[in-house]
Request: fold
Amino acid sequence: MISKELLDILCCPETKADLILDGNTLVSVDKNTRRRYRIEDDIPIMLIEESEQLSMEEWNSIMEKHGRKVE
Reply:
């Protein structure tokens, strides 16, 4: 599990946007890129080329689940 302290300093390497811990992934709050980074053995894999771009629907669902305002 990623600590709160680590989560507070991590950001999306592409946009520098905040990240939300969603299960075993980190999701960027940036609406344009909608990047999801996996976590393996408690280590975030923060490589853009290894990330996944979420559909708008999936990204909206994750943001709403975590109480983030979606515009």
